[in-house]
Amino acid sequence: MEKPKDNAAEQNRLRILIAEDEKNIGDLLVELLSQPDREITIVHNGLDAVRKLRKGPYDLLITDLMMPELDGMEVLRQAKKLHPQILAIIITGYASLETAIEAVKEGAYDYLRKPFRLDELKISVDNACERIYLLRENRLLLEHLRKAYSKGAAAEGAKRDEPPGENLPMETDFVSLDWLPPSYFQNSGTDASTALSELERLGTLLRQGLLEKEEFQALKKKLLGSLK
Q1: 125 lies in the same domain as 221
Q2: pTM
Q3: In what order do the strands lie in the sheet with 110-113?
């Protein structure tokens, strides 16, 4: 008798798409990164990666920069258009400062240069997965807060004969922005004033011990890369 699926476990699974044109490296990555809570799909060129992305959402994209049909940078751009919340890790043997800056500006979560150590990639992926789970928890709690506030506001409004939903606050009225990680917000381009304010906030979190130094540096790099 077939064992019934655990719907909660299925919903919590992370969907990871790997785009790597070298089959032996791709197979190695699948073996290295496989875990019970991860569903990994691998393709061997950029066009196939985009086709997969168009068919459904993925949580994490790991893509080589140089691939046939479509390069990794274009795959990253298409992934961000189709699924803005997706995290992406770029892998390349042709690293340069310019391509690293471009990758960060296009929204890459991390950038690894070949030949990379396997533990280096594993740490990067594990950190990305932790962040994805954190964002999921944030969104879930935010939705619970919205519902709870809506019920309370509706009950209060009924006492005053106000229409349902009247005077509901924006989410930032009852959820502190400091409670959400910076990557929760999708920057299409940050002006200097906003970047300075966000950088000061990150510095405060670092001094309070809520951010590790390495995480602060990574977030600062991402923030500066989002400047218009």
Answers
A1: no
A2: 0.61
A3: 38-43, 14-19, 60-64, 87-92, 110-113
Residue type, 99: T
Helix axes 213-225, 97-105, angle to 10 degrees: 80
Max Cα-Cα span within the chain: 68
Token pair recorded at residue 169:
């606050």
Q: Are 21 and 123 part of one and the same domain?
A: yes
The 8-class DSSP code of residue 174 comes to T
Contacts 24+ apart (CB under 8 A), 68-75: 68/21, 69/45, 70/45, 70/46, 71/46, 72/19, 72/46, 73/99, 73/102, 73/103, 73/106, 74/46, 75/19, 75/46, 75/49, 75/50
In the beta sheet, which residues pair with residue 64? 91
Burial class (CB in 10 A: 0-12, 13-18, 19+), 97: exposed
pLDDT tens digits, 36-88: 999 999 999 999 999 999 999 999 999 998 888 898 899 999 999 999 989 99
Contact present, 67 and 111 (Cβ < 8 Å): no
The parent domain of residue 72 ranges over 14-130
